């Protein structure tokens, strides 16, 4: 029996260079953290992680990057299953590591800048659509797409 086809998704590739920064547990958001296409703070009982514009991060900070963000067109229904599985499979096959973030409306997949073109190609080969950045995909407005 042939499995049903996997859904395909639209993604927008954003142009900002992002960094993932590790801060100490309980750290406040530093004044140097510049907002970007994606700005995220995640705090656990062990650490605080920050995603921000790479150009604003001090050289001494513990960071990784630069990353390119790919935004899944949303809003995504909370009842959907397998979205990240479907999107990360082609990247795993291409041996591209990721850093993911989910927001209320959608999922974001960050790949190292040196692998961004390969990620774009892997998704395209798997039937997904990757859109280049446009003025309508800036931080002030989010693209909305059907699933």
Q: What do you see in this structure?
A:
With 147 residues, the protein is an alpha+beta fold. The protein has a single domain (10-137), classed as VC0802-like. Helix content is 14%, strand content 29%. It has two helices and eight strands. It has helices spanning 83-93, 116-125; strands spanning 10-13, 18-23, 40-43, 48-53, 63-72, 99-102, 107-112, 129-131. β6 and β7 form a beta hairpin. The chain is globular. The two termini are 25 Å apart.
List keywords for this structure.
VC0802-like; 8 strands; disordered C terminus
Number of strands: 8
Going by CATH, the homologous superfamily would be VC0802-like
What is the CATH C level class, in words?
A: Alpha Beta
Low-confidence stretches: 136-147
CATH topology-level name: VC0802-like
The amount of beta strand, in percent, is: 25-35%
Order of helices and strands: EEEEEHEEHE
Indicate the structural class.
Answer: alpha+beta
Radius of gyration: 16 Å
Query: Mean pLDDT across all residues, rounded?
Result: 90
N-to-C span? 25 Å
Number of helices: 2
Shape: globular
Write the layout of secondary structure elements.
Layout lengths: L9 E4 L4 E6 L16 E4 L4 E6 L9 E10 L10 H11 L5 E4 L4 E6 L3 H10 L3 E3 L16
Parallel strand pairs: 1-8
Antiparallel strand pairs: 1-5, 2-4, 2-5, 3-4, 5-7, 6-7
């Amino acid at each position: 029996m042939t499995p049903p086809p996997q859904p395909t998704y639209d993604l927008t590739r954003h142009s900002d260079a992002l960094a993932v920064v590790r801060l100490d547990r309980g750290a406040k958001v530093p004044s140097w953290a510049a907002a970007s296409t994606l700005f995220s703070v995640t705090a656990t009982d062990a650490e605080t992680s920050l995603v921000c514009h790479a150009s604003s991060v001090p050289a001494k900070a513990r960071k990784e990057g630069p990353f390119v963000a790919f935004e899944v067109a949303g809003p995504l229904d909370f009842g959907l299953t397998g979205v990240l599985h479907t999107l990360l499979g082609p990247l795993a096959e291409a041996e591209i590591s990721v850093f993911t973030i989910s927001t209320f409306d959608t999922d974001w997949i960050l790949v190292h800048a040196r692998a961004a073109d390969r990620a774009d190609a892997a998704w395209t080969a798997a039937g997904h659509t990757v859109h280049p950045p446009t003025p309508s995909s800036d931080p002030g407005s989010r693209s909305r797409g059907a699933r």
